[in-house]
Design a protein that fits this description.
Layout: E1 2-9, E2 14-23, H1 27-32, E3 36-46, H2 48-52, H3 59-81, E4 90-96, H4 100-117, E5 121-125, H5 126-132, H6 134-138, E6 145-150, E7 155-162, E8 166-172, H7 178-189, H8 196-203, H9 230-245, H10 252-278, E9 282-286, H11 293-306, E10 309-311, H12 315-318, H13 322-334
Parallel strand pairs: 1-4, 4-5, 6-9, 9-10
Antiparallel strand pairs: 1-2, 2-3, 6-7, 7-8
Bound molecules: 5'-O-[(R)-(carboxyoxy)(hydroxy)phosphoryl]adenosine and zinc ion (ZN).
5'-O-[(R)-(carboxyoxy)(hydroxy)phosphoryl]adenosine binds near residues 12, 151 and 289.
EC number: 2.3.1.234
Enzyme class: transferase
Pfam families: TsaD
């Protein structure tokens, strides 16, 4: 038997609708590994261009864009999968964390579909979705595994015993998220928003050792698995100011490469240390910043040296999408967890 799960994501600036197929394994197999989940469709409509001139996401603009994109994106996903709404067996939707008005649109749509189709509705955690999405590419997640979640809104190290029901936070950023640091540094050096892709590109032409930027929270008295990127951002700004005062031209590729090296160094150093500390043999890196070329290269190098299996979903699955919510929904369905009541609401600050 197999079931089709639709996932709806509207926590920030991407309207995502994904469809997955959950195949029932035999019970012993399921306990050992986890359910088998296959990707059927992953459609995303982004409002990122509408926010670009503001240098960050404008919540009201995002909500309006979700409202316009919701139904067409769902129709596109069904068409891609060659399915109709009546083939959908359950709906999963991002319940949080995210922007209140943006979440509201996805939650309202999910309730409407669930009520109309008379299928169960599951409000799920966006961050767990970023981890669950890896199963679409690399199969069931070993238990436990370590997740390094790096996006525009979050930077966390998680111990994942069961992606549907047991995730423990080992550490998180005390100030800016890694993606936020990329976006702010891009603005400082005059590159467009979102800053990750243009910095990644510019860094390829630069020297990562040109400037010794600080590695935040790596002192002996700092929390070993927490992060801080606000000091790094300030250090970049101070360095540029000093160069300008001295009438020097700004070597943007060197600044980008050195900044990127500092971020990748701290993220991978702490993630590998956490895996060692907890005796975990598999690491998943996900979220928009996982698309960063230097982060994945350095993670690969350090995981290999430490004997840790590294899993990084393809970039398209790392950024926000509906397939990750559908994948998590499939795990929740497979685990027989209770459905959400039709009157549940989104929780912007969901832990
Ligand atoms: O996961 P995501 O799509 O949305 C959030 O939930 O935040 O992540 C977006 C973030 C942005 O800050 C963007 O600058 C960053 O991911 N990003 C990157 C790269 N591609 C996207 N950061 C570094 N290198 C990249 N190649
Ligand atoms: Zn995200």
């Amino acid at each position: 038997m197999s079931r089709v799960i639709m996932g709806i994501e509207t926590s920030c600036d991407e309207t995502g609708v994904g469809l997955v197929r959950l195949s029932e394994n035999d019970a012993a197999d399921a306990t050992a590994t986890g359910p088998r989940v296959e990707l059927l469709a992953d459609e995303v409509a982004s409002s990122v261009e509408l926010h670009a001139r503001y240098g960050g996401v404008v919540p009201e603009v995002a909500s309006r864009a979700h409202l316009e994109a919701m139904a067409p994106t769902a129709r596109r996903a069904l068409a891609t999968a060659g399915l109709t709404l009546s083939d959908v067996d359950a709906i999963a939707v991002t319940a949080g964390p995210g922007l209140a008005g943006a979440l509201l649109v996805g939650v309202a749509a999910a309730k409407a579909y669930a009520a109309a189709l008379d299928v169960p509705l599951y409000g799920v955690n966006h961050l767990a979705g970023h981890v669950a999405v890896d199963t679409l590419e690399h199969g069931p997640l070993p238990r436990p595994c370590l997740a390094l979640l790096v996006s525009g809104g979050h930077t966390q190290l998680l111990r994942v015993d069961d992606v549907a029901s047991k995730i423990t936070e080992l550490g998180s950023t005390v100030d800016d998220a890694a993606g936020e640091a990329y976006d702010k540094v891009a603005r400082i050096v005059g590159l467009p928003y979102p800053g990750g892709p243009p910095i990644d590109k510019a860094a390829r032409e630069g020297d990562p050792e040109a400037i010794a930027f600080p590695r935040g929270m790596t002192g002996p008295r700092d929390a070993p698995f927490d992060f801080s990127f606000s000091g790094l951002k300030t250090a970049v700004a101070r360095w540029i100011e000093a160069a300008e005062r001295n009438g020097e031209s700004i070597p943007v590729p060197d600044v980008c490469a050195s900044f990127q090296e500092a971020v990748a160094d701290v993220l991978t150093m702490k993630a590998v240390a956490a895996a060692r500390e907890y005796g975990i043999g598999t690491m998943v890196i996900s979220g928009g910043v996982a698309a960063n070329s230097r982060l994945s290269a350095l993670a690969r190098e350090r995981c290999e040296a430490a004997g840790i299996e590294l899993r990084v979903p393809r970039p398209r699955l790392c950024t926000d999408n509906g397939a990750m919510i559908a994948a998590l929904g499939a795990h929740v369905v497979a685990a027989d967890l209770p459905a959400s009541p039709l009157d549940f609401s989104g929780t912007p600050a969901l832990p």
